[in-house]
Amino acid sequence: MPIPTDTLTKTPVSLSKEEILRYSRHLIMPEVGMEGQLKLKQAQVLLIGSGGLGAPLGLYLAAAGVGRLGLVDFDVVDFTNLQRQITFTTEDVGRKKSAAARDRLSRMNPQIQIDAFETRLTSENALDLFKDFDIIVDGTDNFPTRYLVNDACVLLGKPNVYGSIFRFEGQATVFGYPGGPCYRCLYPEPPPPGLVPSCAEGGVLGVLPGIVGSIQAMETIKLILGAGDPLVGRLLLFDALGMRFRELKLHKNPACPICGEHRTITKLIDYEEFCGIRGEETPVAVSTGIPEITPREFKARLDKGDNLFVLDVREPHEYQICNLKGYLIPLGDLPKRVSELDSSREIVAHCRSGKRSADAVEFLQKAGFRKIWNLKGGILAWSDEVDPSVPKY
Amino acid sequence: MPVKVIVPTPLRRFADQRSSIECEAATVGDALRQLTTSYSELKKHLYTDEGRIRSFVNVYLNDDDIRFLKQEATQTKDGDTITIVPSIAGGAEAAALLRIV
């Protein structure tokens, strides 16, 4: 079993009396022992993302005594994170995730070094950030960063412990291991922007990232120890609802653009452009010229008694959380239910944040509707600007 | 020959929420054609306009990727399982996949 890290070549270290006590349940296992615990102590692991996957990763790797942990995250803890990001407490809301996670992990294990990088991972800083670490663990939430992490790992020859989740399903594997496949061998390209994210289909069961992140932590520790069979060339699929694990073969693709025989990618690229989501954070309506109405304008027209038809394009389970008493047609059902709408009336479409309803307005305009507006910022903005009693989710 | 096609979570809404479908098919391509005939909305998520399987969707026959077998012409036998595995990006936050208007 080749050991992918250069831990064996580092300065010899030893364990203090306190460390021997702390790690005694590792030390009495022949698979870890003193040799393994020293490898853990010398290992340097970089966690990309301090969210749902990053939580169990950070907690277990810190507890296990990985000598240096790097935490890369630029985000801030918010209330919706607490359902699954178990590193954080209610008091952490509003703090930088990387700093809050560093403090939490330091309290758990003060004998390791934890470096918080409060930065967005970019093509400009990735290679520099990664170069000092032995193993990179990908716990991010978006396609551009996934491809960036993959490419940087392949270029630097570092293993990339991959985990990903969606609702009730998880995937895990180890990419970038010597001779093994990379992320691009599995998925050469990301989904095109027209077929990508919608908050309608988001959501994740809180325990799921705990399970997938723990699998990533286990694989990271195995790589450091050089023990067992690493999850290389195998994609582990986890179905939480069916409570089933399956394993699929992953092949190294000889035609892979970054790790194949004829490489066309030899340096980091613009990953947002590659994923077709340049300008994703710009409100859709601005870029497409969809007619909008602000929550305050909408409220004023309702107060005036204007006969507006309110169209809610969210899902039924979202309507149950809160609603503006609109007529509910989920975005996905709109094409087949368009006949329920009266194009002679003035229609205000809304969703949670304004993104899905912008799509709905665009669709209805193409279907011949002329008197239609998108509620800018959706129900979230309505709660902020008009009626704070409407809960945000 | 009856084969089972496993539909991943992100695509179930286009297949009446079913997690798997059984059909009679001699090849993987056959089975996928039947699936997308029964559930026409699935088609644009699995295939490009040119009729090729999309590059962010992988199809497995049992535990092997059909790209490394005979693609859609890969023959199936009784009791085989075909799994559709789309790329998912979720981790820190819930990111979703595959939207249709």
What would your notes on this structure say?
The complex is a heterodimer of chains A (393) and B (101). Chain A has 393 residues and is of the alpha/beta class. Chain A has two domains: 7-274, Rossmann fold; 284-385, 3-Layer(aba) Sandwich (Oxidized Rhodanese, domain 1), CATH 3.40.250. Chain A is 34% helix and 16% strand. Chain A has an eight-stranded mixed β-sheet, sandwiched between helices. Chain A has a five-stranded parallel β-sheet with strand order 9-13-12-10-11. In chain A, strand 12, helix 15 and strand 13 (372-375) form a beta-alpha-beta unit. The longest helix of chain A is centred in the middle third of the chain and has 19 residues, at 207-225. Chain A starts with 16 loop residues before the first helix and ends in an 8-residue tail after the last helix. Residues 196-200 and 279-287 of chain A have low confidence and may be disordered. With 101 residues, chain B is of the alpha+beta class. Chain B has a single domain (2-86), classed as Ubiquitin-like (UB roll), CATH 3.10.20.30. Chain B contains three helices and five strands; from the N terminus they run βαβααβββ. Chain B has helices spanning 9-12, 28-38, 43-46, and strands at 2-6, 20-24, 57-61, 64-65, 81-86. A five-stranded mixed β-sheet of chain B has the order 2-1-5-3-4, covered by helices on one side. Chain B is globular, with a radius of gyration of 13 Å.
Q: Which properties best describe this structure?
A:
heterodimer, A: 393 residues, alpha/beta, Rossmann fold, Oxidized Rhodanese, domain 1, 2 domains, 8-stranded mixed sheet, 5-stranded parallel sheet, 16 helices, 13 strands, 16% strand, B: 101 residues, alpha+beta, Ubiquitin-like (UB roll), 5-stranded mixed sheet, 3 helices, 19% helix, globular, disordered C terminus
N→C terminal distance of chain B: 35 Å
Strand order of the largest sheet of chain B: 2-1-5-3-4
Can you name the CATH architecture of chain B?
Answer: Roll
| Count of DSSP H/I helices of chain A | 16
Distance between the termini of chain A: 48 Å
Strand content of chain A: 15-25%
> Which percent range describes the beta-strand content of chain B?
15-25%
For CATH, the homologous superfamily of chain B is named as: Beta-grasp domain
**Broad structural category of chain A:** alpha/beta
Number of helices of chain B: 3
Low-confidence stretches of chain A: 196-200, 279-287
The CATH topology of chain B: Ubiquitin-like (UB roll)
Amount of helix of chain B: 10-25%
Question: Given this structure, which CATH class of the largest domain in chain A is correct?
Answer: Alpha Beta
Question: Can you count the beta strands of chain A?
Answer: 13
